[in-house]
Amino acid sequence: MGKFRKKYTAHFLESEVRAKKHLGQHFLTDENIAERIADTLSLSGYKKVLEIGPGMGVLTKYLLKKEAEVHVIEIDTESVTYLRENYPQLEGRIHEKDVLKYDLSQIFGEEPFAVIGNFPYNISTQIVFRVLEMRNQIPEFSGMFQKEVAKRICEKEGNKTYGILSVLVQAFFEAEYLFTVPPSVFNPPPKVESGVLRLTRKKNQKLACDEKLFFRIVKTAFNQRRKTLRNSLKSFNLPDSLREDTIFDERPEQLGHDAFIELTLKIQPYAISDQQ
Fold first, then answer.
1. Which of 167, 201, 235 is the last residue of a domain?
2. Which domain holds residue 238?
3. Which of 72, 112, 132, 196 is the most buried (most CB within 10 A)?
């Protein structure tokens, strides 16, 4: 088939489920892109996959072709009805829940699973934070975001788009921006381009510092990203002797995740007792 594969899903699908603006739904209609996204998962060392927001299953059908136990989680009742009618092989694995609120251990217990999807723009950042919370169980995470968000997650230090998500994600995952997707392959078309990324969990994801403090320092620093760390971290009430360290001359976007770990280790003796 190759390049001669039919590019779009059958037209009748477009009328089956109505895209809902309040859910941020933009249904992917390009089969080639759906297959490329499904192929981002290696399925190495695990066989369970969670697709978030499957809609009418354009990505789901390619996941089901793989040797994996595919689960889908969908908050839209109309989409759930469509999936039950058109994907009988998903019986018992369609979860009509809010992924941001549902306890995913009800599905996977303590077993590893990948997360994938064409993520609604309005909750995509929250989904990333959810993945970070469950990173011990999630070896791979891939899917489609608003291009600006996908780029930010994968950005390196020294750039204006580098921020909280960049540091926190890259501390635990290898982040790759894979390709850009135009608005024309969605129904309805979004007003911006989309981007597909892949996150692969690092073999050694245990930080050398206190993780809660690391998160707190990163978020506090970027909340005043134009200031030097000496000023943005004033709330930590650090002694002057420590604040004279040259690392405090930097602005947050100048520090990679390793440098933030180093910074956390410097602050840790003074701040740990403050958190308790």
1. 201
2. 211-275
3. 72
